[in-house]
Every structure is written in structure tokens, then in C-alpha cells.
Amino acid sequence: xxxxxxxxxxxxxxxxxxxxxxxxxxxxxxxxxxxxxxxxxxxxxxxxxxxxxxxxxxxxxxxxxxxxxxxxxxxxxxxxxxxxxxxxxxxxxxxxxxxxxxxxxxxxxxxxxxxxxxxxxxxxxxxxxxxxxxxxxxxxxxxxxxxxxxxxxxxxxxxxxxxxxxxxxxxxxxxxxxxxxxxxxxxxxxxxxxxxxxxxxxxxxxxxxxxxxxxxxxxxxxxxxxxxxxxxxxxxxxxxxxxxxxxxxxxxxxxxxxxxxxxxxxxxxxxxxxxxxxxxxxxxxxxxxxxxxxxxxxxxxxxxxxxxxxxxxxxx
Amino acid sequence: xxxxxxxxxxxxxxxxxxxxxxxxxxxxxxxxxxxxxxxxxxxxxxxxxxxxxxxxxxxxxxxxxxxxxxxxxxxxxxxxxxxxxxxxxxxxxxxxxxxxxxxxxxxxxxxxxxxxxxxxxxxxxxxxxxxxxxxxxxxxxxxxxxxxxxxxxxxxxxxxxxxxxxxxxxxxxxxxxxxxxxxxxxxxxxxxxxxxxxxxxxxxxxxxxxxxxxxxxxxxxxxxxxxxxxxxxxxxxxxxxxxxxxxxxxxxxxxxxxxxxxxxxxxxxxxxxxxxxxxxxxxxxxxxxxxxxxxxxxxxxxxxxx
Lengths: 316, 306
Prior knowledge:
The structure holds two protein chains of two kinds. Chain A is built from six helices and 17 strands. Chain A is of the alpha/beta class. In chain A, the strands form four sheets. A seven-stranded mixed β-sheet of chain A has the order 12-11-10-9-13-14-17, with helices on both faces. The radius of gyration of chain A is 21 Å and the shape is globular. Chain B has helices at 74-87, 102-112, 141-154, 171-180, 219-237, 250-259, 268-272, 276-291, and strands spanning 3-5, 8-10, 14-16, 39-40, 57-60, 63-66, 93-97, 118-124, 159-163, 185-188, 192-195, 197-198, 203-204, 210-214, 241-244, 263-266. At the A-B interface, loops of A face strand 5, strand 6, helix 6, helix 7 and helix 8 of B.
């Protein structure tokens, strides 16, 4: 029960930057003092409203001799109550301060509020949560398959794979060019061949393939198709390769099924609605194979995952 | 800050609301669970339950709906795996018990009599009674009386708390039934049966169609119900109330105390920030200092309505 010097917890952080990356995605840079080491695939829960400590709603903060400001806590209730989970897109350490990078898509009440946050504002960060992708010790090749807002944790994983000396290729897809949550160079090939077209990944020796559903940049089609084509090309021996994937469930299922079929190890970072992220609310269930009579049991995306072996997942 | 729940002295009124705090140590990295007055587990049933399909929760304005389906590892696994963790927790433990027959409740209560770290049982009576055609135990005073009396017989050592459902016409009627049947304390309220609809798909959001509404949205109703039960039933019977329903801040907790609650349980707010288990009692202590109260219990039911 003793809390470690640097353990997961609730942190107050002053936003360093919050900038638009494409039509829907933003990149948030969050220095968090005392934040523990993290792994790619892990996530944080952000409160998508101003931290209450700064609103004077605690009884302790009421002005002496005056009634409480009823409006504040009553009205904060119409802001998002629950935190929103975000995978880490990066984590760089400087002394005791972790600079967390979070790339998110502004799609709902919480994330649209988050998009209005400016440098100097405060956010409440809870984490790090869940289990990371890990890096396979003995397999020299790695392929990252990411779709849309599933791409960010793979950027962080690419750094780990590169540092571990793995030969890594990233296959990144989006609906259209302006929904891609990563910057590209001007010359993205239309064929699925890895190039240095994503500078951030090229810098660490990772080649990238870009695919868009509408063909507005890169390969015209689903990113899963580029994976199948490259796998069929035979340059990746099944027993030498680990696939790490995150994105829409249909994409991950296609990638996962293909890997299982070809005997390729595949780790998927699943997404679920979650209230707590700490294993208590029991809402973020994933059906996982089990040797019980039913053949499966529910695991929690937050504490058992979010990374699962593709071979273990029972899809709908 | 200490409070007395049916002869059991708790260091402070703070508790966890069942279903929002896991079985034992899930929040141990985030808060010091030893600072709790008591830890209330998620619902335990006689047999393990997988629970409902996805999706199980949805956030609504100032609240959320859940339909977990009492997913839990069952009594045997709870005793084998979780009780050893609870023994190291450093706070008294109340186990929330759910069932679909009176026998279920009694069987679980009997076994929990033998577990020293468990100091009380909280009956979740917001469950369908299979023998009574699926009607919830908690919605009918006669059923409340029947199940409470039966479990009372099995609870010789443990404190018996009955958790009341708000899905009734008059909560004072079910409260009176529980007290008459021997409940040591009442906790209120459980969630409101509710529904959220995805209008694009024209389907309920939750796989279970309905769910229980919790969070700040229900707090004013919960405060009213605590006040009604306190004035109509428990004040004269000298039975303590554990107030539950949308508590996030110390001022929320104070509303419950003024309305008649002796204990306080925090639920949905834990999902967003478990550290409120620290900030709420700090705020309560500060309030007592500012208003010159030596003991928090002096405030219980001290609402001035004239």
C-alpha cells in the first residue's frame, strides 16, 4: 500500500502548447512534474474542464464569513463529469518533469473543450494507466499499422522500437489527407512503399506508407490493404515480425485476423468508452478467449489492456 | 470527525459507494485508503457473474448511466483473492451483497460472518427477485421487510445496512420496512432507473437498454430523500443514514449531513477523481472549525426549516 516516490497518480499540469495539427486533430504538450516513466500504449485520463482547485469550489476556499458561491459547483456540473482517455504520443523527460505529448481528435463535448485550452492553462492528468505494447526481444522486424486517431500511440512505440534496434515500418491511414494526425513531406508515393514521407519517423529511421480512403494523399484505399500487399510481397518472414496496431476496430480486426492467419504475432491497442480507467467501473470490457466453458471472459480494456494479443480477442 | 454506525466507531464519515471503488486496492495508487471511515466493496453475489454486454456506461448531462449487470467474481473468489487484500487495507470493510433470491442474500451473509475484516453488510436490494416475477426487492416494502429480516438472522456480528432504491413512490415506506425488520443503518440512495437513446440509430445507448443514473444530477433528489427518511423514520428510531448521491465536494457532503446523514459515500465522483476522498473530509473539518462545531455529528440533521 505504500506509495512509491514516483508512482501513477493525479497531477496538475500547466499546458505548454495545444496546437492544431490538421482539420480535426490537435497536439497537446503537457509538462507534468513527478510523472512516472510510461510505456507506449499506455494512456492518461484528462479532465476536460478546468481543475476545481482553481475555481474555489472547495469548502476550504470559501471566503471567510460569506456564503458559498453556489453558481460555481452547480454550473461546473454541466461540463464533462468524467475524464477522457488519451493514449500517449510521446514522453520526453527533463529532470523531474515529463513532457507528455497527446494527439487527439476534437469530436465530442470533452475533446472540443480540450481544443480551446491555451498554453498556461491547467489540466488535471491521471495516469499513466494500462499496459504498454512492449517490445519483442527476439524478433528483429516491426510493422506499425495505424488508422486515424489510433496513430499517436504508434509514434511513441516507433521511438522505442527504433531505440531497440528493430527494423520498423509504419503504415498510417486516414479518411482523407486533412484527417491525418501526423505531418508529411510533399512527396508521398501513391504506391505502398515505405519512404521518408513522415519526417518525425524518418528521423528515427522508420519508413512510412500513407493511405487515405479517398486517395487525397498516398495510397488510395484502406491502410489494412497496404499491410496485406507488403506482407504478400514476402519481405517479412512471419516468424521474424511483430505487428503493433491501433485504429478503428474494423481495421484492427482485419489486421489482426490476417496476422493470426499468417502466424504473425500481433498486438492491438483497443479502444473502449471508459468512466474511470482504473479498473473499478467495469465499463470498458473486451471479450478475450478463455479456457472456461463459455470459451471467453470479459477483460477490462483499462487495466488488462489496452494492448491485447490479436489471437486472444473474440470479435463481435 | 468520528461517527458511530450501529455501535461501530468509524474514524470519519467517508465511505466508498459500492460499484465505484472495485473490490479492494484498485485506487491504492491514487489515494490513501486507510483514511477512509469504511471501505464498501462492489456488489458480491453467490456465483460469479460476467455482467452485461458492451456498452455498459454513458455519460449524460451532469451524470452517467451504468448497466454493468453486477459483474463480479463471486463469493468464493472474493473470499480467496480479495479478502487477503482487504485485510491489509487499514479501514473497516462493508461488503455490498446482491442476489436474486432471499436464499442468495442469506447464504452470502452467513459466510461473511466468518470473515473478521468484514464489519458490515450492505444489502443491494435493487435487484430483481426471481421468485417474485422479477420485481425488484427494493421497490416493495413487504419484500424489503422479508429480505431484511432474513439477513438480519444471519448477521449476528456484522452491521446490517440496507441500501434503498429511489425508484419508489415514497422512500419513507421502504425505509420504515427495513428499520422495522432490524436494519442497523440505511444507505440511500441507489441509482435511478433511466435511459439514454442514440437518436441517429434510434436505439438505446446501453446494451441493457436501461441503466442507473448517478452523479451530480441526482444530488438534490438524494438530499431530499435523506431528509425525508431522517425526519419520518430514522431520527426517532435512532438509525444512522449513509448519504449517497452525487457527492463531489465537501459542500455536497454537508448538504447530506444537514439533511440527516451520519455517513457519506462517494461514488461516481471517484471515477473522475479518487482524491476527493481526501479533499472532502478536509473541507468538512474546515467547515467545522469556521462554524465552531467541535464534532461533525453535531451537524447531523441540523437543517433549519422554520
